[in-house]
Task: structure prediction
Amino acid sequence: MSDRIFGGIGLVLAIFFGIQATMIEVAFMSDAVGPSVFPIIVATIMGLASIYFLVKPDPAPDWPQAGRLAEIGFAVLVLFAYAQLLPVLGFVVATMFAAGYLAWRLGSKPVEAVLVGIGTSVGIYVVFRLILGLSLARGPLGF
Amino acid sequence: MELLSSLGDGFLVALTFQNIGLALLGCLLGTIMGALPGLGPSNGVAILIPLAFTLGLDATPALILLTSVYYGAMYGGRISSILLNIPGDEPAMMTCLDGYPMARKGQAGEALALSGIASFVGAFFATWGLVFLAPQLVKVALLFGPAEYFALFVLAFATLGGISSTNQAKAAFAAALGLGLAMIGVDTQTGVPRFTFGEVHLYDGIDFLVAIVGLFALSEVFIFLEHRGTDKDSSTGPKVQIGRIIPPWSMVRSCIPTMARTSVLGFIAGVLPGAGASLGSFISYSMEKRLVDRENTFGTGDPRGVAAPETGNNAAAGGALVPMLALGVPGSGTTAVLLAVLLALNITPGPLLFTNNPDVVWGLIAALFIGNVMLLVLNIPMIGLFTRVLMVPPRILMPIVAMISFVGIYGISGSTFDLVVMILFGIGGWVLRKLDVPLVPIILGTLLGNEMEVNLRRAVTIADGDYSVLFGSPLTIGLWSIAIIGFIMPMVAGKMLKRRMQLAKKTGEDTDLVD
Amino acid sequence: MKPNMIFGRAFAAAILATTIIGGPAAAFEPEATECIAPANPGGGWDFTCRQFGKVAQDIGAIPGTMQVVNLSGGGGGVAFAEVVNKRNDSNDLVVAASTATATRLAQKAYPGNTSDQVRWLGSLGADYGVIAVAADSEVETLPELLDMIKQDPRSISIGGGSAVGGWDHLKVLIAANEAGIEDVRSVKYIAFAGGGEAITQLLAGSLQAYTGDLSEAKGFVDSGDIKVIAVLAPERLEGEFSEFPTAIEQGIDAVGANWRGFYAPGGMSDEAYEYWATTIHDVYESDQWKQVMQTNGLAPLDLSGPEFQEYVDASIARIEELSREIGLIK
Result:
């Protein structure tokens, strides 16, 4: 069943992609092939492959139970929050929280999680900012 | 011989304390940056440019430092592929396929040592190729017009079948997905934005590094989250044995023909601008699988499946220096950065480089030889250290991997948007892995998609809309023939495989195929 | 160990430099200087920032080290929007720019942003455009090439290192326009990822002509593989480049300079604006920068402050007019 759903989504994606491709407006001048041809070929391949899944699906994988899905969902939320808060809080603080959370959810005890968070963020800061000189996000505290 | 005496002069240039020190520093930093997901060779080199400038280095020492980083990163990428199933950079993607299974079987040390040797062999022969063949190879690059490039990319995709999945449709879907992602951004041939939905961040397209780090590294974190504490945990847990560190001679010997073939193949792929190291490692793996994989052991931890892509990508790294030095055309992202450095150092790459700046060229080539030996010597004893990574429990290792992935992307582009896209790729990667859709074709699609389309359009436009130009030269016909053979062969072989699998299934449990 | 020693020395020099610069008598003194390169490390804008920062520090024009921040995306549009929306009042910030920035602004390729939202500071040199053909080509002059295009546009494929509508393309169109080719859209332009790639295809015989910057073409001219039929400069260049004829002296009034320079946030104070314009001018005048210009094949273009503002405004207006004329924008 999973493959059927996947095939359905794939087909919708392919159709969407194909339609978008035909809607590309050429305002100025076009080459002999144009910007739509190759994407349409790609959409066709994608669509054919999706139809194949619909017709001949593989056995379904073991999907995790709701609790586990929620676990992954929360991790995704935390990571999204991390991405947004990075420029606000600064690299070190934001990373400390994100790494600590992941460590905790992956089975570390709270104290260990805090240590992993601090260690990861400071370690990365030292290597990437101080040694390699990359510009990481600067927060209100300057790091 | 004149060439050898020039090379001798090169060694005189390279063998100073300062230059050897720089090569060592470059090799070490390069290996580390190669191993860290998100920091590939091109960014590694770019990051160190300011260092070279701050140190006030002359042209030759600066180049020695930066090319050591380049070669080092090509070595380093394999480490995280083998140990974590996360490619450290894009050319190391193929090394995951057999390297990680080897590590799971308790052969992590052997896989690392073997891939180190394979890297050495590939880079060694490629550097000799650079010495003897650079001028002639330029002519090969000139044989490749847009039509030939298009045929070459078709060939690459035609050999995709059976790379990492028994379901051809899923590989095709993945490739189409990758190609579709590559279409996002401003179309260079007409200047119109495609699939960007008015989002400025998408105008430059999706950086394949963002895709690769999301698909591989973040999805791995999600898989650990999913499996923690369940019975599957044991299979992903830290119970891997490190095993022996030096591979038995029989294993190395079995890989010698593979290394010889893929050195040549990778080198040629590297010489062609626009193909680069990723194509080198990819074609090396898929061709070798076609040639020698009779028992279907590729993908399950076959040593030859580790040796092939590693030889291929290191040979390609050397090969990519040919068009950069002799034509001033970057064959890959990394050589594009090196090219910018050359220009900044008042060296004009191009046909006259070998006559105008012999000290730079030969010093650089000598440094490549030195760096390569240095990397082998550094890498083999350090295997014991690398494999310690496996002793770190995932609850500590995985947060570190995730955060390094983020910082690698953010540190380069400074864009929160890229991070969000990367997380989306992580979720997508997790779903696709559950559904047994191979990830390699997606990356290949995003890497090569633009070049493939653009060359198709260049060829047809130059011929005023005549599509027959795509089959218009002997070289294109040759490439198309190989592509077609490569496409049909796995279909026949795949049928045989399916029959074998069905036989096996009858003896096993009854699985409902319809659901 | 040797590298450590070098490290140490550079570090000591850096400290020395910061202590020596007590404070020039300017009304404005930046705290922490920052340069945004709107591209990944290794690109042209990145180099503009890094080399400018290095020279400015060496000659003591700025206090301490300039921090270079890479902010890529949208062909510079992401950085532009960031400066306008979030850093509008910063007095410590400059952003690397070039003709490509002006072209995109003129063509409205930064959605919602316009040139008057920032203040243009100054230029650090220019790279003049060239049109070249393969050494064995029968074409000897620019009018000859344009005549061939006029007679049969399909017979000539011109390759360049920018996208369609980009600067390398526009240069050809300017020349074609001047030569009286009515429908410039018929000129067959093939876009490549960089000038080097286009030159390779010129040598391979896929293309008949090449449009790009002089610095890209230099190596192949020296080796005798290609010949430059026109430089798009107001007058002949100096030194080794003086042998190339300009388009103007062949009767085609086309000039195309790819300048490099900086803009600053629109809300920057006048004192700070003056400070930065002076700094850019000082850097331009320094011997170190002369060296950088020579190594990068940059020709003189010394404009700063209001002068540069005028220059950019004029060039944006011209590109806009041209783009509208050929239908690139509505």
